[in-house]
Amino acid sequence: MEAVEMAAPPPPPEAPPALDDKAVISQDKPVSSTASAAPAATRKIIYHAEVRVKVIDLLRANARMDSLTRTYGAYVSDASETREDGEWRYQMKIRVVPGRFQALLGSLNGLGTVESKVLGSDDVTAEHADVSARLSTKRALEQRYVALLGQAKKVSEILEIEEKLAEVRGDIESTESRLKTLNDQVAYSTITLIYFQELPLNTPDAPVLSFGSRLTQAFYDGWQLLTGLVLGLVTAWPLLLGGALVLWAVRAWRHRRQRATKATGE
Asked: pLDDT for 179-235, tens place per residue?
């Protein structure tokens, strides 16, 4: 009798690996999170400045700024106008490409008298590289979780993977937002400009008084002076009494002395 060869049973399906971020990422190509020294041409520099200018005519300065922003291809991201403390003040944030940053700053001198100008720059090359690397890592992790989700069979495994996937996608959105902000700040320099026009302070005119009003006021002032003198005398009665006693004592002493002198002469 011929021997019948039995086929081996298929191996049991492998369970999805434990959902550890490091283990999941290790199956993909590693992404370096350290930024190497970038050449000067590719460095990420954020330029910014704060300028305060005193102008003679604020409306004319507004027209001048509209012309400057068009000339240099800039745009105003924020603006406000106030009237307080004797100033008519206009404040704006101007965004311009770095290549025209210095030229636009120089043109602001034509608005009026520059009272202050502060320039600064921030090198964000390392931070930009780090954020980009973390974003690549998070995206690779997201793809791995998507693949694991397609292999999962149990409901508990599906729920656990979906929870991890939601966390990773939240991190991706946050990292993308930071990277977008860095790219925007590098691509457009920021000038915070304040220019103001001094406003004359209005002083109230002195009221014009009639003769009757002035006469009444003079009578009232005289009465106030008289009552003040009387009250002053009443207040100073101890001094007046003491002075009177001293004067009486001096006169009595002189009178006795004169009598003694006459008696001695006789």
From this structure: 999 999 999 999 999 999 998 876 655 566 677 777 777 777 887 887 877 777 778
pTM above 0.70, yes or no: no
The first and second tokens of residue 20, run together, are: 């550890």
Angle between helices 211-235 and 237-265 (to 10 degrees): 60
pLDDT in tens, 104-153: 999 999 999 999 999 999 999 999 999 999 999 999 999 999 999 888 88
First-to-last alpha carbon distance for the chain, in angstroms, is 192
Using the Cα atoms of residue 134, residue 137, residue 143 and residue 147 in order, give the sign of their dihedral. Answer: negative
Which residue has tokens 């009598």?
A: 259
CA–CA gap between residue 165 and residue 159 (Å, rounded)? 10
Residue 242, both tokens: 């003491």
Rg (CA), the chain: 46
What secondary structure, in 3-state letters, does 56-109 show? CCHHHHHHHHHHHHHHCCCEEEEEEEEEECCEEEEEEEEEECHHHHHHHHHHHH
Q: Is 79:92 a contact under the CB 8 Å cutoff?
A: yes
